[in-house]
Design a protein that fits this description.
Mean pLDDT: 93
Strand content: 5-15%
Shape: elongated
Distance between the termini: 82 Å
Order of helices and strands: EEEHEHEHEHEHEEHEHEHHHHH
Largest sheet: 6 strands, parallel
Structural class: alpha/beta
Strand order of the largest sheet: 5-4-3-6-7-8
Oligomer: single chain
Number of helices: 12
Amino acid sequence: MSGAEKTDGAVRVGYIGLGNMGAPMAKRLLDWPGGLIVCDARAEATEPFTRKGAAVAATPAELARQAQVISVTVLDDDQVREVVAGPDGILETAGPGTVIAVHSTISDATAVELAALCERQGVGLVDAPVSGGAGGAHKGSLAVMVGGDEAAFQAVAGPFGCWSDLVVHAGPVGAGTRMKLARNLLHFVAFTATTEAQRLAEAAGLDITELGKVVRHSDAITGGPGAIMLRESTAALAEDDNWYPILRHVRELGEKDLTLALGLGDRLGVDLPLARLALGGLGAGLGVGAGRAAQAAGAAEEHEITGSSRERT
């Protein structure tokens, strides 16, 4: 079957890379009307798919002869380059109109570079990293952020719907990766803040596993950090903007609680650097400016620095 040929009105889909994320994503394509063909360096990874009726290709090039939409979930930039453009790679055999979807989190520059290489051959490439982890992959509830032109986005939207329940067209090639990096910036900064909160709780004699239960429970209700990500711009808000009183209220609550937490940390001898940064930057980040608590903390810190400088001189 050629890459452009269709079965039952749908293109044939290929999947390369059947690891912790790729395997559950590919399994949800087993019933895809146009058929599924898979490829992995490990023969044992493909066996569950052959038992369910999927075809197997020995190399990405062999797979690309038979599939028009090809998902790639491998480890890093080097592996993606090898799968797409290396010897026995997709571009060795892919026909015009083929669309490659890279789900690996790679550099946005790598995505742009490979897309340009593919374009010379009439092949489309989208960077389409996912969010939701292996659990989301098994449930078919991943979020996928797609960078590519409109035609490529339309080509992948159907197959992506089998393993995701949120497909976002982030913009041109590279935009999907940039959105994933921004999302993961929040994720891992939040993890670091979590460790700071745990240190404070532990110093206060609290059970940090019980604290974890409270955090998971309340975030499931409030939406966590995503609950404030509703504005179209990060610019400062005018006072007559509908968001202004809402986010000013968030700032007041946040500055109050951060001030109290920092006070507790001072009494317990626990340094809370992220909390101090949050107190100083919360209001400006929300677009409503610093409140009284942040201004007072900033003035106190400036006074302390000035006083220390005078003592040294």
